[in-house]
């Protein structure tokens, strides 16, 4: 009984942190606050992964998303300086009330569809017991290197392309200016 | 203990927030962050369903590749943002109208 309360409490806290972080990302005028909201959302999702027997993925989430992607965003925001926050951003393309109505209707539609489906049992029908190594590094790694070997190699090619492309796009005209300096 | 619908509800809320942020905000950085929110929400759905069908790790493997591709896409997207800023001195997506006649 105590374990149930603990599990439900942990899930509720993590879900709240995730949703609040997402809302902060979307509605904050200062993009640094948005980046911190994204960090909170990612940390909350890593916690949710832990509850879903996905320990390896939770670690990867923290290392890659929280530790690299969010840092990259913060770098770029700091590079841009005060120009990262445009003053004209206060007025949106459509009204905030319209956005709130859109969001609420979307969530309400999803909830009604879920409640009308035949598989909806909101009482305590948890997951079946999983085997001990589910979500562990060895088990997921074994699957990635056997069933997912071709996508794995293609992702490494994608990374090379992305790194070369990012450098090429971000360098811009600096090369031309450098060649003018050379005698 | 926690039904799968709860995880799906969290994923739906985060995804909808990401969509609303992508459509509503004009700041390119916030739009890229909303993209990351949507990808994270999809990851939660994948891992939750993998927990339901716990025979193999297909969902977690898929989420792993989604994380990898999202990281690469964030890097290239931010390079484009820097390039646009160098060109137009602005990060608003409204100012990326060079192809507009």
Structure overview:
The complex is a heterodimer of chains A (183) and B (101). With 183 residues, chain A is mostly helical. Helices cover 74% and strands 0% of the residues of chain A. Chain A has helices at residues 2-27, 31-51, 55-80, 96-116, 137-146, 149-171, 174-181. Chain A is globular. With 101 residues, chain B is mostly helical. Chain B has helices at residues 4-24, 28-52, 58-88. In chain B, helix 1 packs antiparallel against helix 2 (28-52) and helix 2 packs antiparallel against helix 3 (58-88). Classes of the chains: A mainly alpha (183), B mainly alpha (101). The interface between A and B is large, with 93 and 70 residues.
How do the helices and strands follow one another from N- to C-terminus of chain A? HHHHHHH
Q: Give the averaged pLDDT of chain A, no decimals.
A: 84
List the total number of helices of chain A.
Answer: 7
Unreliable segments of 5+ consecutive residues of chain A: 178-182
Q: Shape of chain A from CA axes?
A: globular
Structural class by helix and strand composition of chain B: mainly alpha
> Beta fraction of the residues of chain A?
under 5%
Most residues in contact, chain pair and counts: A-B, 93 and 70 residues
Please describe the biggest sheet of chain A, giving its number of strands, its sense, and whether it closes into a barrel: none
Count of individual beta strands of chain A: 0
CA-based shape of chain B:
elongated
- Tell me which oligomeric state these chains represent: heterodimer
Q: Radius of gyration of chain A, rounded?
A: 22 Å
List the SSEs and their pairings.
The complex is a heterodimer of chains A (183) and B (101).
Chain A lengths: L1 H26 L3 H21 L3 H26 L15 H21 L20 H10 L2 H23 L2 H8 L2
Helix pairs in contact in A: 1-2, 2-3
Chain B lengths: L3 H21 L3 H25 L5 H31 L13
């Amino acid at each position: 009984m105590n374990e149930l309360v603990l599990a439900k409490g942990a899930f509720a806290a993590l879900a709240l942190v995730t949703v609040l972080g997402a809302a902060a990302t979307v509605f904050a005028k200062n993009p640094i606050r948005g980046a911190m909201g994204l960090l909170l959302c990612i940390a909350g999702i890593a916690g949710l992964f832990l509850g879903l027997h996905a320990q390896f993925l939770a670690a990867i989430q923290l290392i890659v998303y929280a530790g690299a992607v969010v840092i990259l965003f913060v770098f770029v925001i700091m590079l841009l300086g005060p120009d990262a926050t445009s003053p004209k951003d206060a007025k949106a393309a459509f009204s905030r009330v319209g956005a709130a109505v859109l969001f609420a209707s979307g969530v309400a539609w999803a909830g009604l569809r879920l409640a009308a489906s035949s598989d909806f049992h909101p009482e305590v029908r948890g997951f079946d017991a999983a085997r001990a190594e589910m979500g562990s590094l060895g088990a997921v790694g074994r699957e990635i290197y056997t069933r997912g070997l071709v996508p794995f190699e293609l992702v490494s090619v994608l990374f090379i392309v992305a790194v070369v492309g990012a450098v090429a796009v971000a360098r811009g005209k600096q090369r031309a200016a450098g060649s003018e300096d050379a005698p | 203990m926690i039904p799968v619908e709860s995880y799906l509800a969290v994923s739906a809320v985060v995804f909808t927030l990401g969509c609303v942020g992508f459509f509503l905000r004009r700041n390119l950085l916030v739009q890229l962050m909303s993209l990351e929110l949507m990808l994270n929400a999809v990851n939660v759905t994948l891992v939750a369903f993998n927990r339901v069908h716990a025979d193999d790790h297909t969902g977690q493997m898929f989420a792993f590749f989604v994380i990898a591709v999202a990281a690469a896409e964030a890097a290239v997207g931010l390079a484009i943002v820097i390039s646009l800023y160098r060109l137009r001195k602005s990060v608003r997506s409204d100012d990326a109208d060079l192809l507009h006649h």
